[in-house]
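Worked Example 4.2. Consider the chain below.
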Amino acid sequence: MLIGGYAATVAIANDYYFYAGYIVLQYVVLATAWNILGGYAGYVNFGSAGFYAVGAYTAAILCLALGAPLPVMILGGGLAAGVIGLAAGYLALRIKDVYFAIATLALAVVVQTIVDNWDYVGGTRGIYVLHPHHAIGFSNYPRLLFFTMLVLAVGSVVVARSVEHSRFGRGLAAIRDDEHAAESAGVPTLRLKLMAATLSGILMGAAGAPFPYFVSHLEPSSTFSLAVAVNAIAMPMIGGATSWAGPVIGALVLGGAQQIATVTISSVLNLLIVGLLLIGFVIFAPEGIVGLARRLLR
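Applying the procedure from the previous section yields the following structure tokens:
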């Protein structure tokens, strides 16, 4: 897949495909990251935009203050969001259901309030983060960013698949099915949930780290976008939240539909598309595309 992606950056002349591909692959990472805690463990996280923004602003600070290269920006953004995930998880993972969802939403609001009032990162005005003029190995930087996000997408899927088929993943599934029974059986529920929250935060932060180079002007209104939070939840739900393949399928289907709507009709329809598809799948296929396919095959 990586070889094919690199070949596409050489063969395809129109840069728009790389901009659109970046967005879709970004949602593959975000949906996969959300699914580790929300799908495997059953803890619905409404604060995805907050972790994504932590990664983006950490990367921007590393670039402006230290002149860090893109790999260091991604590593720093992922680690910063992972630390936030661990700290927030330690405080919030003792509650569940709607209370946990509200707590994660509040976390995103707190992070946005800090950014809005932080002059170093421009506050509500935002800051300019210009990418280098030359992209080593690529004809321009959009193609490099596309390939970078492709690497992150493949890596996140490999991590999610490894988690799903590991003892760690089986423990998270036990928590999702019946946390009290799992704890009675000796499953270290709090430790597993903290590991899941940290890993989910790392991947979300890594997804946000290249964003400053992608937009050049980083501001809270675009970084803490409602679309990020909504898509991160809707894509695994539409694809199938209990499988590593579900978020990938959901992100490709929903992200592709949104990009097509953006160029043919209007980007205003993106959230409408999400809402209609989510309502349809909740009613007719609550287990998502993967669950529907399994049921039809049986």
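The first strand starts at residue 127 and ends at 128. The two ends are 30 Å apart (CA to CA). Compare this with Example 4.1 before moving on.
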